[in-house]
Amino acid sequence: MDGDKASCCSSTAGIGQRTRDRNLLLTSAASNNQWSSSLFSLMPSWTQKILFKRESSITHPLHEDLSRPSVTSEFGVTFQKCAMVSTQRDPQVANIRLLINNTNTPSASNLSDLVLLDNITGLVVQGSTGNQTSDGFQVFRKMFLPVGDYYAVNYIAFINAKEVKSNGNLTLPAQLTFNSSSLNKTLLKAFFSIMGQDDPKARQSILQANSLEYSHFTFADALHERFPSDNQILEILAFEEPENMLQALKDLEVADLNRADAELEAHRGQICRDVIALSLKAMVAGDHLPPLLEKTMSSTFGSLFAGLDGEVREEYKRKMVALTAECDLETRKKMEIQARREAADREEAEELLNRVNEKSASEYRSLLDNLHRLEREHMQRCLLVKREEDFAKAYRQLAIFQRNEIHKIFFTQIKSALFKGELKLETAKTLLLDYSKRQGEIEELMDYLQANKKYHLSQRFASRECLIRNIRISESRAQGFLNTAAAQLISLINKTQRAGYLDENQMRILLDRAQAEVLSVRHKLENDLKHEKKKLHQKLMIRRRQEMLLKQKEHRKEQLSLDEATRTSKEIGPYLRQRQALLSDGEAASEGLMDRLDVTAAEELKGLRESLTEKAVEDLGRIRHGALAQELWKLDVPRLYVQRLLEEQSGELALRTQQLQQAERDAGQDARESLRKTRQKLKEELESGVAAQRELRDQERLVFTKLLSLPLSLSEEQLHEMKQEFHCCFSQLDSSLALPKIRTRVLLQNLQSEWIEAELLKLSQALSVPEVQQQSKMKKQRCKTRSKIEVLKQTVEDKIHIFEEPISEDIIEKAHGELLLERGRQVKAQENKLGEYIAALQFQKADKKSETFEIYTTLLSVQGLLLEELSMSETLTDSACAQILESRSSEIEELDRKLESELVHKESSRQQQAVLNRQRWISDGLGLLKEDGEMDSERQMSALLWQALKKCPRLIERHNQSLREELQSLVVFEDRLESLEMDVFLNLYSQDLRLAAYLSKLTVVPEGLLPRLLNFLLPASSQNELLPVLESIREKYSEDAGESDSNGEQTDSCRKRKHQGSWQALESKLRQDLINRGLDMALDACRKKESILKKPLPTRMRPSPSRRNSPPKLSTEAVSEQDSMNYAAVETEDALGKGEKIFIFTNQEDTTRPMHACPKKKKKNFLNSKKSTLVTSGKSLEGNLVGKSVYCGKNVNVIGE
C-alpha cells in the first residue's frame, strides 16, 4: 500500500435501567402437548428477566442487552483505540491512540481507579509510558477522571510482518476497568484489528464477527416453554456476580411462581372439562341420557371451551400490551424526573465546589454520585415491584374470568337443553347435583396440588440459596487465596527494601512491575474463567436439556395412558385420584432431577473456579520465584536472603490455604444444617396450609348452608343461578402462588419507602431547626474548621446511610400482618358478594309482588269509586250493588277452597319425598359404615375405631350435603307455593278487571278520567306501570261493548250528561284530598324530626361549649368498644318523604328481640284478607291516597243490608 490507513474502534458504556431487563415475552401458542388449547399452559413468565448476554463487549453488574457494539446512553463513557498505519516504511509503523472520554451527559458520574490494559502482541512499542508485562500487554493507570474530561495515551509501534502473515490479521483489543458511584466496577472493551491486506470491508467483518458472539447457543424448543428457568439458574451460577446472585435468584423465584400458576390453571381447566365429559358418560351408562344427546352436548361443550380459550388469549395479549405501554411510560417519566433532580443537585454543588480544594470536591462528587445511584436503584426497585403486581393482578383476573366462564357455560347449556325439551328435569337435577359435588372435589384437589407445588418451589429456592451461599464461600476462598499470593509479591519487595538491599527508586520500579504482572495474571484468569465458563455452561445446558427432555417424555407417556383410561372410564373418583397421583409424582420427580442438576452444575463451576485460581496462584509463584527473584539478584540482593523469604512465603501460603479450606468446610456445614431445618419447616407448612384451606372451604359451605336456611323462595332457574354464583365465589377462595409473594415485595418496598421519606424529612428538619443551627455555629467556632462543604458531605453521608439501611424486622412483620388482613378481606368480600346476589334476587321478587298488589289494591279502589257513583246516581239499586259484592265474595271463597286443597296436597307430597330422601341418606350412611376393610383379628377394637375415624369426615360431609339438598328443596317448594297463590291471584285479578270494565261502562267514564283517577290513587307510579292496567280495562270494556244492543249510543249520551257533574266533583275532591294528605304527612314528619332533635343526649355525647366565633373542634380520640356497642343500632327515617334522612341511635342493650331471633311468620293467605277487604271496603277515601286501604264508597254496609 502507498499511503496511510486509519482505523478506529470504540466502545460506549450503555448502562440501561434495571427495569428494562424485565421484558414481557409473548411466546407462540404453538405446542404439541395436551394443553395446547389452553392459554395458561402457554402463559410466559412475564416477569422473566433477560439476565445475561454472553460475550458482550461491555460487562457490568446490571447485565443489559448490549448486542450492538456501540450504544448511546445517558451514562456515555466512550473508550476508543485508533491507529494510523504508514505502509511507506519497512517495518510498517502504527501511530496508536487510546482515548477515554467521560462525556458530560445529564447522568454522567465521576470515574476512579481507571486501569487500561492494552494488547500489544506482535508490536514493538516505542515511547510508551505503560508498564509492559511478559504475556504481551501494557498497563496504564489513572486515579480519577471527572465528568466532561478525557484521558488519552499515544504511542508508536512497529508491526511485526511475520505475525500478520501467519495469522492473517492481528486482533489487539484494549480493555478498560474503572469504578464509579453509579456503576460500581465496569469493564469496557475496544476491539482493534490490523489486517494483512487492504480490505474495505474490514470493519464490517469485525462487527459481524462481534455480533455472532452474542448468541452462540440457541435454546428454543418445547422444553424451553416447559422449563423456562433452567437456563436462567445456570446463567446465575455461571455469570452473575456473587453479591448479586441472591437478588437474581429472588427475581427468578417470582418467575417460577408465575409459571407454576399458569401450569396449575391449565390443569384446572383440563380437569374441569374431563369431569364434565365423564359426568355425561356416567349419565349415559345409567340410562338417564341418550347417547346421541351426550355426543351433541360433548361437541357443544368442546366448541364453547375452544372459543373461551381464544377469547382469553386475545384478552391476555391486549392486557399485556396495554400494561407494558403504561409501565414503560411511567418508568420514562420517573427517570426523567430523577435525571433532572440529579442535574440540579450537581449544578448546586458545583457552585460550592469551585471555592474548595480538589480533594474535598472529588470526595463530595463521589458521595453525591453514590447517593444518586442509590436513589435510582431504589426508584427502579419500586417500579419493578409495581410492574410485577400489575401484571400478576391482570393474570389473576384472567384466571378468575376463565373459571367463571366454565361454570357459566355448563349451567347455560343445561338450561338450554331443558328449555328445548332435550333434557328431563330430573336428569338436569342429577347433573347439577353431581357437578356441585365434583366441583368441591376439584377444588380440594387443586388446593392440594397448589400447596404441593408451593412446597417444591420453596424447597427449590432454599436449595439454590444454599448452593449460592456455597459458591460465594468458595469464591471468597479462591479470592483470598489469590490475594494472598499477590500480596506476597509486594511483601517480598517491601521486606527486601526494609532490609536495606533496595533504594526507593528501585523499590518503586519493582512495585510497578509486580503490580503489572499481578494485573496481567488477574486479567488472564478472568479471560480464562470467562471462556471456560462459556464452554462449561454450554455443556451443562446440553446435558440438562437431554435429561429434562427424557423426564418430559416419561411424564408424557404417563399422561397419555391416563388420557386413554379417561376415554374408556366412566368413574370420576378414580380419575381424580389418578390425576392427583400423576401430577404429585411427576412434580416430585422433576424437582428431584432439577435439584440434582443444580448441585452438579454448582460443583462443576466451583471446581472450574478452583482449578483456574490454583493455576493463577502457580503463575504468581513462578513470577515470584523466577522473574522477581532474578530482578532482585540483578540488584545485588543476597541469594540466600531471597531464598529464605521465598521459603517463608511458601509456608505461609500453605497455612493460609488450610485456614481457608477449614473455614469453607465450616460454613458449608452451617449452610447444610440451615437447609435441613428449612426443609422440615416447609413440610410442616405444607400440612398446615392444606388443613387451613380445607377449613376455609368448609366454612364457606357452612355460609352457603346458612344462606339457604333463610326464609327464601327461589324457582329452579333462580336456584341454579344461585348455585352458579356460589361456585364462582367458591372457586376464588384459593390464593395464587405468585401474587402473595409479589404483594409482600410491594408492601415491603412501600413501607421501606415511607420509612426512607420519614428519615429524610427528619434529617432536613434537623438541619433547618434554629437550635441545631445555633449549636452548629458554636461547634464551628470551637473547631474553627468546619466549612459548608463538610456539612453537606455529612448530610449526603447520612442520606446514603439511610438508603443502605436494610429492611427492619418491624417492617417485615407489618407487611406480613397487612397481607393477612388483605386475605381476610378478600374472603369476606366473596361472602358478601354471594349474600348480595341472593338479597338482590329476593328484593326483585318482593318488589315485583309489591307492585302487583299495589296495582290490584288500586283496581279495587276504582271499583269502589264506580260503585259509589252508580249508587249515588241511582243507576244501580242498593240490592244490585249488594248482589255484585255477594257474587264476588262467593267466587273468592271458591278460589280459596281450591287453593287450600292444592296447598295441602303439595305439602303432603313434599313430606313424603322428604321421608324418602332421609331414608336414602340413612341407607347411604349405613352402607358407608358397612364397607369392608382390612381387619386385624388381634387388634379388632383399635381397627374399628381407626375405620370409624377415617369414615367420620365422609359421614359428616354426606350429612351436610343432605341438609343442603333438603334446604334447597324447601326453597323451591316455597316458590311453588307462591307461584300457586300467584296463579289464583292473577285469576282473581282478571275477574276484577272485567268487573271494573263493566262498572266503567255503566257509569260512562269520560275519556281521560280513568288515567287521572289512577294517577291520584297511585301518585308514585309511572305511566309505563299504569298503562297495562288501562289497556286491560279497555280490552274487557271492548269485549263487553260487543255484546250491547243497538240502542247503546242513546243510552250512553244520556248517562254522560247525567254523570258529568259528579265526575268533575269527584276529581276535584280527589285532588284536594291528595294535597291535604301530602301536607299532613309533611307536618307530621317535621314534628317527629323536631321531637327527635329535642331529645336530651347522654352526658358523654353532649357537645362541649365552644368559644364564640371559634371553629368547631373535632375529637380524634377513638370511641371505646363499649360505646360503639351501646349505640350500634341505627334507625333511618325519611323525615319529609323526599329523601331527608334522620338517623336514630338506640341502645342495643334495650333491644328485646334481636334480628336473628325473630321467628319465621306464617304466611297469610291473600284470599282471606280479600274477603275481609270487601266487607269493610268503604271506610275512607284517605286510605286510597296513601295506598293503605280500599275505598268503595260511603256506607257500603247499608247497601249490603
Write out key terms for the chains shown.
single chain, 1201 residues, alpha+beta, Immunoglobulin-like, 6-stranded antiparallel beta sheet, 5-stranded antiparallel beta sheet, 15 strands, 69% helix, 8% strand, elongated, Limbin, transmembrane, transmembrane helix, Limbin/EVC
Give an account of the 3D structure.
This protein is of the alpha+beta class and 1201 residues long. Among the domains are: 4-16 and 64-216, Immunoglobulin-like; 853-932 and 949-1095 and 1132-1145 and 1164-1200, no CATH class. Helices cover 69% and strands 8% of the residues. It contains 26 helices and 15 strands. The chain has a 6-stranded antiparallel sheet. A 5-stranded antiparallel sheet has the order 1-3-4-9-6. Residues 10-74, 198-228, 780-786, 1044-1048 and 1099-1201 have low confidence and may be disordered. It is a single-pass membrane protein.
